[in-house]
Amino acid sequence: MQPLNGLRNYHTHTTRCKHATDSDEAYVQAAIENGFCALGFSDHTPLPYRDGYSSRIRMPEEQLPDYVASIRSLQDKYRGQIRIYLGLECEPLKEYIPWFRSIREEYAMDYLILGNHVSQEPEEGYFFAHSQTPDDLKRYTDMTLEGMESGLFEYVAHPEIAWSNYPHLDDACLQMSETICTRAKELGIPLEYNLQGNSYRERGRYHGIGYPHDAFWSIAAQTGNQAIIGIDAHHADMLSWTDRFVQAREHLTQMGLEVLDSLGNML
Hints:
The chain is an alpha/beta fold. It contains eight helices and eight strands, in the order βαβαβαβαβαβααβαβ. The strands form two sheets. Strands 1-2-3-4-5 form a five-stranded parallel beta sheet. It has a three-stranded parallel beta sheet with strand order 6-7-8. Strand 3, helix 3 (97-106) and strand 4 (111-114) form a beta-alpha-beta unit. Helix 4 (134-149) runs parallel beside helix 5 (171-187) and helix 5 crosses helix 7 (214-223).
């Protein structure tokens, strides 16, 4: 019997997104070695770009069948050792919501997560991690709400990613937090506490507030949101972050948040 008391991570990338390393199987093996009982792959979704555009931060559309086949094969190979789930991390770009819905059905995806990184496609559009003004935060918030309201996504990844390089905590940050947390609570959508963000902070990657941030999570606690911890793994060795995982769960619990161990009916 497979143990049910291990850790679960639903935010895992692959080399297809062009900014991750290691094979799909290496992530599975690392997860097993580090005591995970469930691993969800949620690589950056391809987009059916117009005019032959080639993204530098997500898998090409033609690689999607290979991605699906690879994860399904690993599900079979490691059955009884670890539960493996198939998902995607998607941008809440309104024009692509129907396409996300169609590929979820076509490939019988287990879940989709909302990861709001860019204001438009192609990626020469504005990156929300570069937000500098209250207007930037408002645009990020509006798009995040549209994505949540689509009913398509299991949870919101790194909900305060727009604080990465935002210069200081101000009323616009607090308004963004209250708006996202309130709507997530109304819709019953969990928010992700992102461990890669913590790693970025330790390495001095931010030139602003950064994420995850207690100011956001304090509001989430007051609002009664559910939290889920995501490693956002772009390298297999990130699945050795078990101490960080446990510490994050303890920290959020102490703040008064309900921390989910699993998503929906996925054990």
